[in-house]
Each structure stands twice: as C-alpha cells, then as structure tokens.
Amino acid sequence: MLLSSDSDSDLEMLAQLSDCSDEDETQRRSPKRIRRVNYTQSLDDGDFTFRFRLNKHAFNSLLLEITPLLRVTSTRNYGVSPLHQLLLTLRFYALGTMLISVADFVGVSKSTAGRIVRDTSLAIAQLYDKYIYVHQRSADKFYRIAGFPRVLGAIDGTHIRIQSPCHLTGEEYRNRKGYFSINVQGVCDADLKFINVVARWPGSTHDATIFNNSVLRAECDAGQFGNRWLLGDSAYPNRPYLLTPILNPVSEAEHRYNEAHIKTRNTIERAFGVWKRRFPVVALTLRLSIPNMQAVIIATTVLHNICRNHNLTEIPSEVELPSIDNSTMPHNVIDDIPTMHRTDIINNYFRTL
Fold first, then answer.
1. Which residues face 267 on adjacent strands?
2. Using CA atoms, how far apart are residues 23 and 30, in angstroms rounded to an integer?
3. Among 47, 74, 231, 327, which residue is least crowded by beta carbons within 10 Å?
4. CA distance 179 to 204
5. In degrees rounded to 5, what are phi and psi of residue 32?
6. How far apart are CA 20 and CA 30, in angstroms?
C-alpha cells in the first residue's frame, strides 16, 4: 500500500493504526480479571449451609480468623481471594471428591486447588487449641445420660479411609479389615464436641498404643484432671482414670455398671457419626499426601466443634456415604489394673442405680 506524504487522510490512517497497535499490546500485557461468584451473596442461608456445611454467620466468623493466614497480596496469576479459598475447601469437605471437581468450581487448576485445600486446612487446623480442649464442664450432663458420675469424656478410635501412600510404607496403613486408613483417636464431651483428637497413626496401630503415646495419657498420669474418668471400650487398658466395661459381668451391680458405661460411652460413637455425615470427605477415601490428610482430619474436627457451638442442625449429605463403622481393633488388651479396682467403683457408685 503506497501512502503519499502530503496526504492528510494517509497520516490520519497511520495514527489510527498506531493507536490500535498500542491498545492491542496493552490488552496483551494487562492481566485478565476472573469474576468469581460470591456465594455468600448469591445463595440464601439454607442453600449455602447445604453446599458448604456452615451457615453464613459461622462462615464469616471463620473467614475473619483465617484471613491473615491466607492473605493474597498480588493479582498476578489471577490470585484467589481468602473468601474463595475457604469456599473451595469447604466444598471439597462437603463432596469428598476429586480435586479437579472443586477446581472447576472456582475456576482454578487442579494443582492450585490442591494447594488451596492444603493451605486452608492448615490454617483451620491452627485453631485447634481454641476449639478443641479438655474441660470438666460435662460431668453433670454425662451423669444425666445413665447415672455415671465424674465422667471427663468418652474415648474411642475411628478409621479414616485413605489411598495407599506408597509401596514402601503402605502396609503400615492397612488395618485389620484390609483397607488403608489413618486411625484417629477422639475424645468428646456430653455435647458431642471433641475435646481431644489425635490423627497421626497408621491404620494398623492399636487404639491402646495411640492412647499410651498421647499427651492426654501423660496429663491423666500427672493427675491434671483430678478424680475424673475417661470411658473407653475393651480395646483400652483399665486404669484409675480410664474405665472399661466388665467383660464377664456376674452380679446385678456389674450388669448395671456395664449398662451405664455403654450408654454414656456411646456419645463418642455419635460424635464420630455426626462429624462424618457433615463432612463426607472423612467418610469416603482421602486421596492426598499423608501430611495433607492429617491437616484435613484436624481441620474438619475443628469445624465440627464450630458447628456445635453455633447449634447447627445436621444436614443431609450430597453424596452417598458408606455405612459408618467406628469399630477399630479387636478388644484383646489385657487389663493392667486389678479387677478389684473396678469392683470397688461399682460397689461405691452403682449400688443404687
């Protein structure tokens, strides 16, 4: 195309072409802004709670607590805000599905979704000491269940299914039922809130081993909780602060002791059930690295207590869950405290039941 130097129209056309080229270059260099949906505004409270397992009030309170740990200071690479990081993580907990599914939910890659779940789970897990702690305020509520006095909490273990970690250590995580798992120790109060959680042992580990190597056991040995009792099943050793059922009751008092023990200890079974139904990710099969799975387990127990604090009712799961079985290892631990210890307890406290 030939242009005359003295043509005003040609000069004007050249200026327009130059402006267009500059605009195209600016558009190529400037980052695109991805518009992500704020579901706290687009959904009503009922639909929001069903999809994210927390109501809006609990969600906003939690977001304020963890935002300093998730702050995004740059818009490079389409940075995901703390709000959408928390939404993605809660959606992952609610579905317990592949990371790619929740990645599409917010509009990020699978690897970014994995990082978000990891970082957000670790941030929530850091709230453990605030929401999960041993207290002695439930003794009266425990007593009203079946007349069992001085109860500190109910203890048990539950298996969380996982994908085999690797061929070298995988068999350590295979439990007695043949699948890979993490054996999680939980202690709850009468309101079904967790007061102690340990989530670092392979599925092949016995419940008693987890307890014997726990900080809780050291605190009980030191007499930190006075004359309070933990109630456990026959997988645990009988100790002055940890009472188990009598395997072969004979007298009426022993039968009453067992009945009161079973009814009171059932709170931990119920707590596990409520926890897994609200957060199906721990009822299905976790497919993450071991540290990330441990973070998810602790984070969901923290969220469980937050839900109990806000008096949130149970909500149905969006996915089909397997039958929840909280049984762990065979009950074959030999008591290392004489049977007379329990007999004295029965005679002193359960004669009038």
1. none
2. 10
3. 74
4. 10
5. -80, 145
6. 15
